Amino acid sequence: MKTDNLTYSFLALRDKLHRSALGFLKNDEDAKDALQDTFFNLYKNGGIQTESEARNKLFTVLRNVCIDKLRKTRTIPLTGIESERLKVNSYSFEDIQKYESLLTAGLTDIQRQIYSLVTHDGLEYDAIAEHLKMSVEAVRMNMSRARKKIRSNYKLLENERSR
């Protein structure tokens, strides 16, 4: 029977599995929960043919369950956290235009035009290429260079702001 191998292997390896989970989670209750989740997941899915397969799957699934638990505990809900970075600023249209002009400073006219068509108009590269009578590769290259320049300008603005 498919669960006999699983149950037998689980009972035989329970202490080792618990120590392994405890090594990951550092908390006895969490380790016990991980063991329970591991057994339940494998029992629910079934398909265990041999004791060797059961042993391998038990340790693999246990590791994955522990990693999932660690990931869940690492996230902190944003409710109740007060931070300057979390505050939403309301910018006027003029402020946004000013900031965008600072970011796009130094772009060539064609780069600025392609950037505008992509970001503001939402056009695809092939439509822009057809509109500007350019190859799609030329549009991509110009957009790539524009993004590179914008990133550079952004870093400069952030450095100036942090001083």
Tell me the series of helices and strands, N- to C-terminal: HHHHHHH
Low-confidence stretches: none
SSE class: mainly alpha
Biggest pleated-sheet summary? none
In a few lines, what is going on in this structure?
This protein has 163 residues and is mainly alpha-helical. 75% of the residues lie in helices and 0% in strands.
Account of the 3D structure:
By secondary structure, the chain is an all-alpha fold. It is 75% helix and 0% strand. Helix 1 (2-25) packs parallel to helix 3. The model has no long low-confidence stretch (mean pLDDT 85).
Write the topology of this structure:
Elements: H1 2-25, H2 28-45, H3 51-74, H4 93-103, H5 109-119, H6 125-132, H7 136-162
Helix pairs in contact: 1-2, 1-3, 2-3, 5-7, 6-7
Highlighted features:
single chain; 163 residues; mainly alpha; 7 helices
